[in-house]
Amino acid sequence: MAASSRYYDGATAEVHEVGVRATASELIIFRPADSAIVVRWPIAELAVLGDGNHEAAPPVVHRGGEARLVIEDIELRQRLTALVPELKALDHRPAPLVPRLATLGATLVALVGLFWVAVDYGTEYAAPWLPYSLQARLGETVFEELVADKDQCHGEAGLEAINTLANDLARAAGYEHEITVHIIEGGPVNAFTLPGGILVFYSDLIDQAKNSSQVAGVLAHEIGHVVHHHPIKGIARQYGIDLLAKLVSGGYSDLLTTLSSGGNILLALRNGRAFEREADTTGVALLEKLEVRADGIAGFFEQMMEKEPKDAALAAGIWSSHPPTQERIDATKRPAIGRPAFSDADWKALRDVCK
């Protein structure tokens, strides 16, 4: 049996075109031009590096040596394999490309799906068990970064009024830790919750509220996020998604990097529709439990719709992190009954908190 193959002697960079013959005991490598024998390799001492699944022509070697023999002729490899079972890896043919790609794609999708389920459900049940002291430190660190270039409001009476109501709502829900409400001067008309029971209100929200019930409604909504541990769940989920993206793309991620900027933390705190609905429902229930007017949540959303008739959440569809505003109004609509959230003096102090 003779055919052209390539032989590398392992000592020089020269490539030799050679022929190959096999006997019962040895593999003979020779020069085609004059049939001079280049080398004889005992069959028992042969090995194949790799297989046809990973190399187009896996090299044959003599164990313990540096020389390589590459046989590119597929028919020759088949005949050699039939004569020399030790070389069976030479005839290992790769599976068709399309099924291999389909299998790889299905496997990747399955792994991503499993990872997503672990992130989605794992954060729901595991995140609240993170020690409160760690959550509080994380919340304080993020708060300091977010407000580093902003003015805080320090009116003692106003801060005491809103913090008292916040802690009354939290205790009504059975929350064991202290709530701290900070007020930032200016806008936007918004409020958000950080880990460790830290709430941040912008003074524009208080200034533009039609009555104290609206501020109490927003506050109760944020307390709903606190008692359901939404901030730490959101951060854990965002970190998991970020890590998944980095793994798929071959990048690298760690928690400190992910949470090191205000933009990233605010992205992580976008709670998602389920969290928002849960916070709305809990907020209304807590106000009713304290026999405080509970119409403020719907009233706040109605005021938003008056200023911006186009519902951004509805327009964004499935990409929105919040439910449609009209849906939230319908779900939280309550009659204007119950005691005021703040006394007249406390409401005035809260309105003047930045003065």
What is the molecular shape?
rod-shaped
Mean pLDDT: 81
Largest pleated sheet: 5 strands, antiparallel
User: DSSP strand (E) fraction?
Assistant: 5-15%
**Which consecutive residue ranges, at least 5 long each, have pLDDT under 50?**
252-270, 314-320
Q: How many domain units?
A: 2
Provide the structure class. Answer: alpha+beta
Order of helices and strands: EEEEEEEHHHHEEEHHHHHHHHHH
What would you report as the Rg, rounded to the nearest angstrom? 35 Å
Strand order of the largest sheet: 4-3-2-1-7
Number of strands: 10
> How far apart, in Å, are the first and last alpha carbons?
99 Å
Helix content: 40-55%
Tally the helices: what do you get?
A: 14
Provide a descriptive summary of the structure in words.
The chain is built from 14 helices and 10 strands. It is an alpha+beta fold and 355 residues long. It has 2 domains: 87 residues, Pleckstrin-homology domain (PH domain)/Phosphotyrosine-binding domain (PTB) (PH-domain like), CATH 2.30.29.30; 222 residues, no CATH class. The chain has a 5-stranded antiparallel sheet with strand order 4-3-2-1-7, with no helix packed on it. Strands 8-10-9 form a 3-stranded mixed sheet. Strands 5-6 form a two-stranded antiparallel ribbon. The longest helix has 30 residues. About 7% of the residues have low confidence.
